[in-house]
Amino acid sequence: MTSETGAAEFEAAIKELQRIVELLERDDLELDEALSLFEIGVTHLRTANTLLGEAKGRIEELIEAASGDLNAIPLDLPADDSEMGDV
User: Fold this and answer.
1) What's residue 86's pLDDT?
2) Whether the predicted model's global pTM rises above the 0.85 cut
3) Which residues, other chains included, contact 34 with Cβ-Cβ below 8 Å and sequence gap of 6+?
4) Which of 28-32, 37-41, 70-74 has the lowest mean pLDDT?
């Protein structure tokens, strides 16, 4: 997968997560529909998380290649969803 494809897929997953959250916040949502949306949301969240992990690995490889050293520089990613902002 190219980085452009991964970025587009990540953006699409985040946009869909935002849409699902808006739907889940409605007062008129039936329980079965809410559960279905939640399951779909979890799938999109996993996709976004996987893509972030791939990007992290790619950045570490690029940093390693540029320096010529074998030291990967770890990226500081949020530990939980509360630090991800309005996702």
Assistant:
1) 45
2) no
3) 24
4) 70-74
Total residue length of the chain: 87
Chain-centre distance for alpha carbon 16? 11
Computed on alpha carbons and rounded to an integer, the radius of gyration of the chain in Å comes to 17
Q: What are 87's two structure tokens?
A: 């996702």
**pLDDT surpasses 70 at 21:** yes
Closest CA to 73 of 65, 63, 83, 81: 63
Residue type, 68: G
Q: Which residue, 10, 17, 38, 11, is CA-closest to 87?
A: 17
Taking phi first (over 0 means left), then psi (-120 to 50 degrees means alpha), and beta for anything else, what does residue 85 get?
A: left
d(CA 45, CA 37): 12
The distance from CA 74 to its chain's CA centroid, rounded to whole angstroms, is 18
